[in-house]
Amino acid sequence: MAVDIKFILNDKPVELQVEAQEILVDTLRERLGLTGTKKACGTGDCGACTVLVDGEAVRSCILLTASVDGKKVLTIEGLGTVENPHPIQQAFVDAGAVQCGYCTPGMVLTAKALLDKCPNPTTEQIKEALAGNLCRCTGYTKIIKAVKAAAKKN
Asked: What pLDDT, in 10s, does the model give residues 49-63?
């Protein structure tokens, strides 16, 4: 059964008809062409698909698209640009916290949600916030360093 929804995506209104069981990561990638949100585990365990819904970091691979009706969704494409990266994105680059880059969009958005709520987090708060985001390449030392650097820029 299809349902009509309206939401704000990266500061722009979107109106779609979606299937009741349609998953947000599929809607973003396949229907809206926003491939920065990665599709990996499909079970909400790795965090590569993290987006912000009303400022909260959520796993889009386990979230029904219909559930974002009336909400604000932010993907990595809505955060910054190549010419004008968001301070968190720049901090990740400066700290060398990107290697293969697959986890980076989810990490950056999770860091944004944390810094929006806690502008000067401790190392433990950063670790706790990032606990649901897995990185197999860089490890977490440089990622934590990047989040701390971004906090200083805010």
From this structure: 999 999 999 999 999
